[in-house]
Amino acid sequence: MRVLFITPYLPNRLRTRPFNLLKQLAERHEITLLSPVFNAQERCEAQQLQQTLPDLVVTTVFCAKLTSLARGLRAGLGRRSMQAHYCYSPALVKTARYLLEAGHYDLIHIEHFRAAYLGRELAFSGVPIVYDAVDSISLLVERTLRHGPLKQRLVSWLELAPTRRYEGELISEGYFEQVCATSREDAAALEKLAGLKSGGEQVKIIPNGVNTAEFAPPLPGTRREPATAIFTGKMSYHSNAAAARYLVKEIWPRVRLARHDARLWIVGSRPPADLLAYSGRNGIEVTGYVPDLALYLNRATLAVAPLVYSVGIQNKVLEALACATPTIASDQVSRSVNVISGRDLYLVPAGQPAAFARQIIELFENPEQAAAIGQAGRDFVLREHTWPEASRQLEALWTAVRANPAAFVRAVS
Fold this sequence. Notes:
seven-stranded parallel sheet, alpha/beta, Rossmann fold, 2 domains
């Protein structure tokens, strides 16, 4: 198939879903990626992406970040979703229309809420459109409003109603022949917003995968660091920062009371100043960005993901499991990933820091138990979360839409 693949940001190894789906599918289909870039560095990254994925045709449009911010603020003042309008670009619309007129495409694939406006702009073309929502943004805004830091709660209070309205309209107005998301929880939330029957599977589930060659267990004979826990994620993301704060304030002091030798690594780019202040205290090291995350996961005794609020599939959990690193997470992970506590990892109910600390200490002190649950986690990922399998599912969805492009429109109407 000839596919126009549109994202609101340039795919890279950290934006793992579009990068890995494109890596798999560009080998079998003629795919043109259309993406905005916001600075000179991203222009260079676009050239690198073209070299990394030579079968992909990379097309970019420059968008000034200040213009995007101003557009988002104007939307907020007009009681419209700021996120939905942040990436709106007349130049991107014009380029997409030009490509469609010149390229005879079989399918348009649009990823993420921030690029979804292009469904309305390109519906005239007659080319079937697949919308990969990834997550339900309304669900994230709702949970941020309940559990996030004060600044994020204020933004979420302004955003919740217009985001719900817009996200529902995107689906119910019938611009897309098919919609997909990463998890059953997000799919159900999107169906509800669009007024569809809950559990009707109109929104398809295409889960995230893991690069199981990059995120692999330590080499035979390699020993993990003793009594060392790791928490990973982009720390500039408010949900990850909230989880890290909960970890260092509520959970880790309990661990250190029992194990004075315990160490904690907080690994991820752009940690806020209040988290950096914990580095060097109570066995905590805040690393910032590291070039090889798998190396840290392979050295740690165990991984933790004490999520306070989240939506979608937690890549940090899947990557730890893929490395056979024993993992302890908040039980909300099971809403989006089909894991079983005690088989694939250990889940702890939200808001129970003492129970979370006890589980960490137990695995520190029982290396055979830790190794067994770590291997089970690796086996789970190999069964259910590889990128070849995720790309096969998306490819099957594309094929079905091309064969019967009006199916989802009829289901909605």
